[in-house]
Specification:
By secondary structure, this protein is of the alpha/beta class. The protein has a single domain, classed as Alpha-Beta Horseshoe (pyruvate-formate lyase- activating enzyme), CATH 3.80.30. About 35% of the residues lie in helices and about 15% in strands. Helix 7 runs parallel beside helix 9. It is globular. It binds iron/sulfur cluster.
């Protein structure tokens, strides 16, 4: 029998997966439990802007068990019960502050909420989703204190490495702000995550691919990738209907081909958490919905890597 090749992250999987990362760190499965702590967003409340990012419709992203009317503790306990029904052996959980901008409050409030989450039995850490322009020194120092004793990730919405794209999607910050926040966060010993969307207005395929080299140079630990999806009743859906050619709505096959090329150029040190979004079809404009769960896309992607004899970082040093 031929022995399976093992990659530098220590497994035969062809990319550096989150489950392998958790196995290395904690010896087994770790489940994220989403929390909606009722934060707002400076890009919606007028501090940075009012309309929000053109694709934003946060209602599409919250699981049913988490609504801000419930205390954080209750949301996490219910989330843990929900996950335990699916995975009976799940015993380690991360509180995932997911909705809106989860560092957008004074440090006392943040400390109280993060503390509350970490006090729930089984919770071993935090994942804090935020904008790169919403982490000042006080917030980062507070989170760094938690990171001394717990597993803590700050997950930044980077979305694109190109300032002209960030302007077009009304992010309200530039790429330099993302790069600075990521470097500062990593410098304080906090794990860093980044979120990127593929298909944003007027970005060519080559430009999207070239981001692999740019991101590879940052001290990012985790990455999440999403294909652009046009959610109903967003500014994006109006723009898309007016000039669809400005956007790339990948077919599944095109997206898999694209991902192979992208991931080959990506630093193999970085853990890839997610390759595709899975907004329910009822939220989407008819075009561009695949009707596939992200785990189904992942299986298809791994098959594609296998067929191509490709892997994460195969062309990292060439890019
Ligand atoms: S930063 Fe997030 S919550 Fe705020 S407008 Fe953009 S997508 Fe929506």
């Amino acid at each position: 029998m031929t022995e399976k090749k093992t990659y530098q992250w220590g497994t035969p999987r062809r990319f550096n997966s989150l489950s392998d990362h958790f196995r290395r760190e904690f010896g087994g499965r770790v489940q994220k439990v989403s929390v909606n702590a009722g934060f707002s967003c400076p890009n919606r409340d007028g501090t940075k802007g009012t309309g929000g990012c053109i694709y934003c419709d946060s209602l599409a992203f919250s699981p049913s068990y988490c609504t801000p009317e419930k205390p954080v503790r209750m949301q996490i306990e219910q989330g843990i019960r929900f996950h335990r029904k699916r995975y009976r052996h799940a015993d380690k959980f991360l509180a995932y502050f997911q909705s809106f901008t989860n560092t957008y409050a004074d440090t006392e409030k943040l400390e109280r909420l993060y503390d509350e989450a970490l006090s729930v039995p089984g919770v071993i850490g935090l994942v804090i989703g935020t904008r790169p322009d919403c982490v000042d020194d006080n917030v980062l120092n507070l989170i760094a204190r938690f990171a001394k004793n717990f597993y803590v990730v700050i997950e930044y919405g980077i979305e694109s490495c190109y300032n002209r794209t960030l302007k077009k999607i009304n992010r309200g910050h530039d790429f330099g702000t993302s790069a600075d926040a990521i470097k500062k966060t990593a410098g304080l010993g906090i794990r860093t995550g980044g979120h990127i969307i593929f298909g944003l207005p007027d970005e060519s395929r080559e430009e999207m691919i070239a981001q692999a080299a740019i991101l590879s140079e940052l001290p990012l630990d985790n990455l999440k990738f999403h294909q652009l999806q046009v959610i109903k009743n967003t500014i994006l859906s109006r723009q898309y209907n007016m000039s669809p050619r400005r956007f790339t709505l990948f077919t599944v096959e095109d997206y898999l081909e694209f991902l192979v090329e992208f991931v080959e150029r990506l630093n193999p040190r970085m853990v890839i958490e997610r390759f595709a979004g899975e907004v329910p079809l009822r939220f989407l404009e008819r075009k561009g919905g695949w009707g596939l769960r992200s785990d189904q896309v992942l299986r298809m992607f791994e098959k594609k890597l296998e067929e191509r004899d490709s892997w994460q970082g195969k062309n990292y040093l060439l890019s």
